[in-house]
Amino acid sequence: MMPIFAPLKKIGMSIMTPLKRHKVKALLTSQEFEQSVRVCGWVKTQRTGKKFSFCELNDGSGLHNLQVVVDNALIAPEVLKRAATGAAVCIEGLLVKSQGKEQAVELQAQKLEILGEADGETYPLQKKAHSLEFLREQAHLRSRTNTFGAVFRLRNAVSYAIHHYFYQKGFVYVHTPIITASDTEGAGEMFAVTTLPLDNCPKLEGQVDWKQDFFERPAHLTVSGQLNAELAALGLGEVYTFGPTFRAENSNTTRHLAEFWMVEPEMAFYDLADNMALAEDFLKYLIRWTLDHNRADIDFLQENYEPGLVAKLEGVLASDFIRLDYTEAVSILQESGRQFEYPVQWGSDLQSEHERYLVEQHFGKPVIVINYPKDIKAFYMRLNADEKTVAAMDILFPGIGEIIGGSQREERPDVLLRRLHEMGLPEENYWWYLDTRRYGSAPHAGFGLGLERILMFITGMGNIRDVIPFPRTPGNAEF
Ligand code: 4AD
Ligand code: MG
């Protein structure tokens, strides 16, 4: 039988030269037994026994903990007791094949250093499972839980996959400004950016004198990087922007944030059909990526939050998304025999109950609704030949509703100008946008994917506040 503790000389040099820090995730699948390792992390649980004590360590690298066995003769139980749940520690020891069935490897501790204690009386994250609501109030600590470890690793994976997808396709990543003087969506939901004193604004003829403000004009946080992405696409061909966007809509729903991340590809020489094909391929790529790279996290979330999560994700990969005309969608809804809270009529926007009926009841798979009435969509969408609808596309997902919004863009200068006027937007603010239509205009298209919406779908989290580390919503900017 293998001795539980190797003689001290076995760890040899490690006492003289500090070992490099190992990650728990790598050690759990390591085949190099009897190696000396050093790991740092947070104690999940510990229990002291007569001869041996145990603790579980997690450093955030993965879902599973490293089991640490402590010989009470080497490290006094009083010391280990100070390394209570939540404490940060560094442990050096020997990695061995586990004798227990629960795990493949375990660490036989030789040395334990306590970096930061966590008082058991007051530490909010004791071993018991906490509600998501409670953890939202502990957002400064919730990254240490299994749930948020899994969610935030998935957020990282999806962000990386987004860059990976576009990079391998030759798209150029462009950084679009966060502060802007133009409104892309025209929905009047922008946060103002000003250095003027609110209680004593300089006035000119009874109006705020914006000339005296920092940018010498009204400025806002952007609701979308699209207009700038269009400028870039009409030179670089295929581009995307990916960053935070802001909406001051006062909607306290489980699907809206005041600050969210959006990825917006924009492609010259694409029409609406090309745009839909790219969006469908892109969404499937992101889902496939997480199944391939973060399976343990997804399995954990399936077990604890959404039964059937993996089958749902695989279902989307296997399905061809429906292409559905808005007008056709309205007929389906009207003929459904359903009593909706909001009436369905041609010309009104689809409400989330309508979207969910189409996706979840009628088709049972993702649906791309296209060709919406022009009056409910933004000025930049390409006017169709009927002059009533525009080449818009919304991608609707089960359980989520709208996950992507996009369109082919209006590339004809005269039509674009007319649409700007119709929507009451000041032409002079968009002179640079109009220039791209005057000089070398080309058909182009693009879309915006809300990062948090796809993450809700992939993680099974029902509230958008639980897929972003520090959510911003009406009345909430703590942390
Ligand atoms: O449909 P939206 O408003 O489209 C645009 O902003 C276009 N400029 C995009 C483009 O064509 N480049 O927003 C796009 C997506 C939505 O489908 C949704 O996924 C997400 O952004 N989104 C939100 N996510 C969280 N909170 C909010 N308040 C959101 N508003 C939109
Ligand atoms: Mg939209």
Question: Which descriptors would you attach to this protein?
Answer:
5-stranded mixed β-barrel, binds magnesium ion, 29% helix, BirA Bifunctional Protein, domain 2, alpha+beta, 479 residues, binds 4-amino-1,4-dioxobutan-2-aminium adenosine-5'-monophosphate, OB fold (Dihydrolipoamide Acetyltransferase, E2P), elongated, 8-stranded mixed sheet
Describe this structure in a few short sentences.
With 479 residues, this protein is of the alpha+beta class.
Write up what this structure looks like:
The chain is an alpha+beta fold. It has two domains: 102 residues, OB fold (Dihydrolipoamide Acetyltransferase, E2P); 290 residues, Bira Bifunctional Protein, Domain 2 (BirA Bifunctional Protein, domain 2). Strand 5 and strand 6 form a beta hairpin. It is elongated, with a radius of gyration of 28 Å. 37% of the residues are buried. Magnesium ion binds next to strand 18.
